[in-house]
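Retry 2 of 3 after timeout on previous attempt. Resubmitting structure tokens to design endpoint.
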């Protein structure tokens, strides 16, 4: 069996974080031809559910960069890699030392998620909290309310490039941890020729919770022989390494463009869908 695996943001979704009408039509064509597909995303289930609604993502979904796998038919997380209590406090200490506000993503009883965060210091952090709560439907609470016994999926933050790099370096020798990072907001010109510095993100997971490991898990579970993967960021590298074929949209990070078998169209121009129509002769 061939399985098609999509990253979401910057890949399958357009700049409005939506499945376009053209892409939706392409997914319908794939269903008509019995070509199975799923997602491998950094989003939680709640965050992924809204743009994927009505597009029949019925196979197990790889979420939080591979830290968890959701099985829609069973309505449960069938597989996960969580951080230990000691790892969580180690990561949060690294954030605090570098003046970064931690956002702690947790798995709650009843297959739900909740998000705990430190004091919000910047406008970007407040906007991020609003995004998680309003658009992605995550309950928010301060770190002071976080239980001692908690199932943590990952810890996330925003900050300057140097601070993000220092945090990544601080966990480099921790074999059970991996840091993904990238540019959240590029450098922008302000009035009087001033420049607002770029804002970077960093996301720390259990090292076994990668998209690549999750795909290998699905290979065994679903008896998959061939995987076609699409992605645009450094968290997609492990997926590319284990896939039979891997493709990057033109907007992808440099390392992904170099790792891809082929560079396809831009994510905001239905690059993935246009490639799939040609690849599978969907019409």
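Retry 2 succeeded. Sequence:
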């Amino acid at each position: 069996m061939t399985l098609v695996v999509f990253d979401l943001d910057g890949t399958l979704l357009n700049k409005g974080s939506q499945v376009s009408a053209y892409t939706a039509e392409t997914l319908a064509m794939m269903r008509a031809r019995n070509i199975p597909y799923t997602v491998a995303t950094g989003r939680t289930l709640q965050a992924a559910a809204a743009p994927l609604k009505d597009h029949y993502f019925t196979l197990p979904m790889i979420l939080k960069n591979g830290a968890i796998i959701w099985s829609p038919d069973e309505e449960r997380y069938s597989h996960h890699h969580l951080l230990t209590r000691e790892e969580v406090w180690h990561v949060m200490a690294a954030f605090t030392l570098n003046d970064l506000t931690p956002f702690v993503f947790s798995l709650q009883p009843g297959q739900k998620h909740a998000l705990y965060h430190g004091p919000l210091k910047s406008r970007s952090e407040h906007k991020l909290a609003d995004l998680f709560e309003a658009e992605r439907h995550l309950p928010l609470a301060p770190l002071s309310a976080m239980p001692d016994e908690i199932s943590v999926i990952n810890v996330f933050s925003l900050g300057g490039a140097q601070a993000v790099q220092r945090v990544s370096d601080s966990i480099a020798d921790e074999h059970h941890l991996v840091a993904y990072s990238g540019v959240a907001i590029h450098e922008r010109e302000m009035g009087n020729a001033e420049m607002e510095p770029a804002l970077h993100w960093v996301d720390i997971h259990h090292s076994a919770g990668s998209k690549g490991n999750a795909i290998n898990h699905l290979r065994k579970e679903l008896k998959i022989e061939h995987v076609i993967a699409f992605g645009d960021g450094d968290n997609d590298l492990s997926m590319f390494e284990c896939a039979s074929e891997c493709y990057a949209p033109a907007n992808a990070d440099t390392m992904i463009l170099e790792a891809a078998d082929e560079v396809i169209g831009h994510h905001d121009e239905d690059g993935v869908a246009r490639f799939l129509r040609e690849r599978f002769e969907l019409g």
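Attempt log closed. Residues 85-97 form the longest helix (13 residues).
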